[in-house]
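Lecture notes, part 5. Sequence design as translation. It can be helpful to think of inverse folding as translation between two languages: the language of shapes and the language of residues. The source text, in structure tokens, appears below.
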């Protein structure tokens, strides 16, 4: 994994420590591919070799989460948050903490958003083309978020 990180193939997200505003070095990490092409290539190779027989279809939600994480990683520090639930991405940019939950489905349950309410600056990034609020949490399309990044 270290070789793939050094080659800029993978990014790793440490669990976020709210007190220190940094990662927990010894806790479990999440990994995402920086490039969707590499994700596709490895996924289909593993499937062809029989390592992913139980997975029927390509996981779009994982790919989209990886796209968002890798783009955030280019402009700041990225983590994930694990408590009683999980937040996909904690983005630390210029001392501003933004909690991002990627929901690539047609239906979002309010129960899935409990953890986001712990952060002042939370956003749901979704498949829907509509903007709005879900349980008082801002919701925008993934493409709009990615387009607006600077």
């Amino acid at each position: 994994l270290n070789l793939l990180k050094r080659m800029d193939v993978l990014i790793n997200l440490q669990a976020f420590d709210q007190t220190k505003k940094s990662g927990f070095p010894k806790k479990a990490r999440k990994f995402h591919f920086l490039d969707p092409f590499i994700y596709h290539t490895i996924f289909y190779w593993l499937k062809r070799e029989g390592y992913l027989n139980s997975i029927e279809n390509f996981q779009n939600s994982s790919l989209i989460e990886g796209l968002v994480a890798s783009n955030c990683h280019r402009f700041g520090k990225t983590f994930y948050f694990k408590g009683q639930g999980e937040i996909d991405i904690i983005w630390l940019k210029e001392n501003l903490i933004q909690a991002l939950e990627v929901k690539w489905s047609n239906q979002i349950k309010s129960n899935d958003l409990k953890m986001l309410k712990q952060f002042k600056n939370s956003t749901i990034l979704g498949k829907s083309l509509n903007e709005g609020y879900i349980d008082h949490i801002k919701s925008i399309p993934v493409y709009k978020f990615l387009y607006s990044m600077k």
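The translated text above is only one of many valid answers, since several sequences can fold into similar shapes. The chain has a mean pLDDT of 89.
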